[in-house]
Amino acid sequence: MILDDEGLLKDSESQRYFKVGIDSQPYAGKALLVGATPDGDFDSLHEEITTEKVFEKIIFFKPSEKYLEESKEIKFIPF
Prior knowledge:
By secondary structure, the protein is an alpha+beta fold. It has one domain (2-65). It is built from 2 helices and 7 strands; from the N terminus they run ββββββαβα. The strands form 3 sheets. A 3-stranded antiparallel β-sheet has the order 3-2-7. It has a two-stranded antiparallel sheet with strand order 1-4. A two-stranded antiparallel ribbon has the order 5-6. The chain is globular, with a radius of gyration of 14 Å.
């Protein structure tokens, strides 16, 4: 997943938030799902990853101000 790395820093009133599954850290803004080769280069997603399967895992939400402030402390660690 490629993320807008400034998503949590943008205006919270117009920003959109999501999680990938219930235990995921929160993300903000736009994201792009891509596949990867064994060497770590970008590639197409596998055929079995469909839009329907992705949307079964995504949880969109609007956090409270307290939760949003705590979320800004979470750092994204690239894989």
